[in-house]
Design goal:
- It is a single chain.
- A hairpin with a 2-residue loop joins strand 11 and strand 12.
- The protein is elongated and about 90 Å long.
- It contains 9 helices and 18 strands.
- The strands form 3 sheets. Strands 1, 2, 3, 4, 5, 6, 8, 9, 15 and 18 form a 10-stranded mixed β-sheet that branches. A 6-stranded antiparallel β-sheet has the order 14-13-10-7-16-17. It has a two-stranded antiparallel sheet with strand order 11-12.
């Protein structure tokens, strides 16, 4: 008989949790699992509860909440024989969506009943474990503002992005990986272990949790027209085709920035210094996966790919026209000055 501990965050996301014990009781396979349910009472409590369950020999600790709850549970069981299960009840559910888990309590428990466990990668940013994404720049800034807003949900997140995006100033970063040192002026830098932020917004469509590599995404500054294109491409899994995106893979990297500021790990913001170290830990956490998940869902379809190519052709034409216009304006100024002579 296996032992499962369900850790419920009663305030995560926008979904009420009062019926979850009944759904667990009616759905869990009692021929396979003995189980208990614990509730979090404060930030960080899920880590305490998960560590206790792990030390007492639990076979699986199930995070019932959003990516923050998943992170708290995951950090307690990395490099142990205890697996993590997920019942996604958060605002974004980025890790659950990447793993192709159903956003439905009953169906998620049915996945746990099958108990297919894989050894997957996780990352660390300045000492903070993450399982989905981490980063700095605008996404970390928005994470901080989202946390300060008090209200959860997609609507609050979108409102924060639209309000803050117009005034956010990109920074210059020096990036050092195993092979090179480069400098970039960037709107954001995201390091992805999984493919998306949440709500099917794919920041790194090609990212895998089993390849032993981080997908590093550098988003260069863009204008208002390009912002719409970037938003569409994130939702259509084609962001990696955008000309404003520079990406590469590595195991570890060191980033130096102009000033101290906020970073994020799985959407949780924290203040940090000018220097940021990020490293991937291969196959360091056991996670219950969906054995019936269709991995083709992570890839763009033919129409989405064609739209991305069209968008980028339009962008290249716009950039070419802009360069030509600037060149003509420069020549015009030279001619005007010489005519005055």
């Amino acid at each position: 008989m296996k032992r499962a501990v369900f850790i419920v965050n009663p305030i995560s996301g926008t979904t009420k949790k009062k019926n979850i014990p009944d759904v667990i009781a009616s759905t869990i396979d009692k021929s396979v699992f003995d189980y208990e349910i614990a509730y979090t009472a404060y930030s960080g409590h899920a880590t305490v509860l998960a560590a206790k369950a792990c030390s007492e020999g639990a076979d699986v600790v199930v995070a019932v909440g959003g990516d923050g709850t998943v992170n708290e549970v995951g950090r307690a069981i990395i490099n142990t024989d205890t697996a993590m299960g997920i019942i996604p009840c958060g605002s974004g559910n980025g890790l659950a969506r990447h793993l192709l888990l159903p956003i439905n309590v009953k169906r998620s428990i049915e996945i746990i009943n099958k108990f297919e466990v894989h050894d997957l990668d996780y990352g660390i940013i300045n000492g903070h474990p993450f399982f989905c994404t981490c980063g700095m720049g605008f996404d970390a800034f928005v994470s901080m503002k989202f946390a300060e807003a008090g209200k959860r949900g997609l609507a609050t997140y979108v409102e924060t992005v639209l309000r803050e995006g117009l005034s956010y100033k990109p920074e210059t970063y020096k990036i050092i990986d195993d092979n090179s040192m480069t400098s970039h002026k960037a709107f954001l830098i995201s390091c992805a272990n999984a493919s998306q932020y949440g709500n099917n917004a794919y920041i790194a469509p090609q990212a895998s949790m089993s390849d032993g590599m981080l997908d590093v995404v550098i988003m260069e500054p863009f204008d208002m027209i390009e912002a719409s294109q970037i938003s569409i491409e994130m939702m259509s899994k084609t962001l990696d085709k955008n000309s404003k995106i520079k990406s590469f893979r590595c195991r570890r990297l060191h980033i130096e920035r102009e000033r101290e500021g906020v970073i994020h790990y799985d959407g949780d913001p924290v203040e940090s210094g000018k220097e940021v170290d990020i490293e991937l830990k291969p196959k360091g956490i056991k996670i219950v996966v969906n054995p019936d998940g269709d991995k083709s869902q992570r890839r763009p379809n033919a129409m989405q790919s064609a739209a991305a190519e069209l968008f980028n052709e339009i962008t290249l034409v716009r950039e070419d026209i802009t360069k030509q216009t600037r060149h003509i304006q420069a020549l015009s100024r030279i001619i005007q000055r010489r005519l005055k002579w």
